[in-house]
Amino acid sequence: MDCMVTGGNVKVLAKAVHSLSRIGEEMYLEPQEDGLTLRTVNSSRSAYACFLFSPLFFQKYAPCRNPVFRCKMTVKSVQAVFRSLSSLEKTVERCHIELNREKCRLTFTLHCKHGLLKTHNLSFQDSESLQAVFDTDSCANVLRAQPRLLVDTVLHFPPSLEEVSVSVSAERVWFRSHVEEGADQSRAMLTELCLSAQEFEHFAVSHPTHITFCLKEMRGLLMFAEASGLPVSLYFDEPGRPVVLSLTDSVLEVSFVLATLSEESPPLNHSNSSAERKPNPPPPDDFLNDDIDSYLIAMETSELAGGSDCPPPPPPPPPCDPGVSRHRPREGEEEEGEQEEEEEEGEETETGRPPNKKFRSLLFGSVLPTSSQAANQTLRNQEVLASDSEEEEEEEEDPASP
Amino acid sequence: MPLSTQSEAGDDQYILVASLDNVRNLSNILKAITLNDHALFNATPNGLKVTVEDSKCLQANAFIQADIFQEFTIREDSVGFLVNLTVLLDCLTIFGGSTVPGVTTALRMCYNGYGYPLTLFLEEGGVVTVCKINTQEPEEPIDFDFCSTNVTNKVILQSESLREAFSELDMTSEVLQITMSPSQPYFRLSTFGNSGNAHYDYPKDSDMMELFQCTKTQTNRYKMSLLKPSTKALALSSKVSVRTDNRGFLSLQYLVRNDDGQICFVEYYCCPDEEVEVE
């Protein structure tokens, strides 16, 4: 891979990296024929973000062919390349991104004013493709607005607020601070804003609904949207199904997929866990352990990624899926890479706290445990969703995996 | 000088009296060398030199020339004492170190000789504070034996360009490697952190490079933890001179302009971390 970004586009790239850093700890980089993608997913797998920079975004763009290259690295390391956004604008003239396969280094070279050259050689890991599955076409509700409108709306919510609820009717949309049930109602400040449909560039609500999602990730997207001035589209359906925020430009496509709280309705696609789920109060950890097999990320492996030039996906189970190996240690040897990856996933989740909410994951509509402790156990017990009946048996036998 | 009448009577007995209209001219530069509590003051008729050391590997010196002071009286050839720098800085900024233009704290600093405390009179807006800080036995500072005749490589840079690099340095790297060479890469700062390595290259013909005198390729590593405090001096300075001698010792000299446009110097000496083979 060999590409060159010049002028103001360097800042766009930098802003994208900063936006991603608000969501996940790792950045997945994939140079494809149709452009360079940068993706991330948060540790609890409830938020996913993808930036696609088309070849025209670059002064020069040469993705690597044969074999197709994908990698992941900590987003912090890439952020370090573009640390100061303000000085970046003033000093950086162009940015060169190059892959050195022999040294296993991805090199970012910033050519700055006064001849100063900054070279960052980042180490990376090979990775599978990361892709959330979502379909904006099937969403019942679509809103599109200038970023300013949403930025100004979000501005009114306190920084400590974790989630925001959005309700839509045929003419209006309400943004409300979401307060957990069981939280001290007397201490909570509730903020509510109502926007009329006329404020939006596009307002199509065919199914009035009420969804709740994390504000932090949305702020990450808005930060980027505001800088780029691109209108933000929101696609969403019923509670529990992901909300998709996207920006589109001739050289750029951005999608953020955020899980929404499934409070009212039971999950649709994946129901074996929901049967025993009590509808309302946040259950204790022990209870959640029964539920954990359904905690899985909406992460597809290779097959979706860009089609033709990708190698055929490995047979199921998907190698990117961290749940596969540990659960059935007796069934034979795993690949080393898989093992490693799994361990990392474990560490990640220990450090990053999953939200204390019952978010359905992006793909399967499953439920998250409440504490980080539960998350650890979850990882040990994670199960492939495809398998069905034996799953329940194992769940019984295997409460705290041997 | 509101203070002068007040302490006139006792001036005879002091062996050192130094007055400043604006205490920030002293406190800022002392902050730039705050490595630890022990600051060695050495006053001569030329001015004041304050030395702080760390780990026997790093020495920071601040030079404040006599003419920076509105009054600088010294009755001996050399006066030396050790004070707690943190306490001294707390006293110097006792009025809050206001940065409002026009509001300044005036200082009169007096020392009575061996065994006596350092006495500070600070005045702002008609309020006077008197501070007495106990002094300690002066220690001999480490002689880094850094002579200009042994200097192999020297560059002078505008601080601005180095500030940017230092603010972005990968702090997960244990060392900062400095390469100076008469050929490519001329002047290079490198870090080796958790996520990879980074190099900052300054070409010799850059606008930021005021002087480039490198005679031999030298690559030396210095502990990041030792060099990190020097960024405080870098932040204040307008120019920096980077020199290495034949043993790989590093000298960083910062030219600092104070609020009144006068020039002071801060100097750091640092031992190299280990031998590095030249690639």
UniProtKB/TrEMBL annotation, chain A:
GO terms for biological process: cellular response to ionizing radiation; DNA repair; DNA replication checkpoint signaling; mitotic intra-S DNA damage checkpoint signaling. Residues 332-349, 388-402 have a biased composition (Acidic residues). GO terms for cellular component: checkpoint clamp complex. It holds the Pfam family Rad9. Gene3D superfamilies: 3.70.10.10. Residues 368-381 have a biased composition (Polar residues). The lineage of its organism: Eukaryota, Metazoa, Chordata, Craniata, Vertebrata. Component of the 9-1-1 cell-cycle checkpoint response complex that plays a major role in DNA repair. The 9-1-1 complex is recruited to DNA lesion upon damage by the RAD17-replication factor C (RFC) clamp loader complex. Acts then as a sliding clamp platform on DNA for several proteins involved in long-patch base excision repair (LP-BER). Residues 310-321 have a biased composition (Pro residues). Keywords: DNA damage, Exonuclease, Hydrolase, Nuclease, Nucleus, Phosphoprotein. Coiled coil: none annotated. GO terms for molecular function: double-stranded DNA 3'-5' DNA exonuclease activity. This is Cell cycle checkpoint control protein. CDD domains: PCNA. It is found in: Nucleus. It catalyses: Exonucleolytic cleavage in the 3'- to 5'-direction to yield nucleoside 5'-phosphates. Belongs to the rad9 family. Residues 263-290, 303-402 are annotated as: Disordered.
UniProtKB/TrEMBL annotation, chain B:
Component of the toroidal 9-1-1 (RAD9-RAD1-HUS1) complex, composed of RAD9A, RAD1 and HUS1. The 9-1-1 complex associates with LIG1, POLB, FEN1, RAD17, HDAC1, RPA1 and RPA2. The 9-1-1 complex associates with the RAD17-RFC complex. RAD1 interacts with POLB, FEN1, HUS1, HUS1B, RAD9A and RAD9B. Interacts with DNAJC7. Interacts with RHNO1; interaction is direct. Belongs to the rad1 family. SUPFAM superfamilies: DNA clamp. Component of the 9-1-1 cell-cycle checkpoint response complex that plays a major role in DNA repair. The 9-1-1 complex is recruited to DNA lesion upon damage by the RAD17-replication factor C (RFC) clamp loader complex. Acts then as a sliding clamp platform on DNA for several proteins involved in long-patch base excision repair (LP-BER). This is Cell cycle checkpoint protein RAD1. InterPro entries: Cell_cycle_checkpoint_Rad1, DNA_clamp_sf, Rad1_Rec1_Rad17. GO terms for cellular component: checkpoint clamp complex. It holds the Pfam family Rad1. GO terms for biological process: DNA damage checkpoint signaling; DNA repair. Gene3D superfamilies: 3.70.10.10. Transmembrane segments: none annotated. Keywords: DNA damage, DNA repair, Nucleus. It is found in: Nucleus.
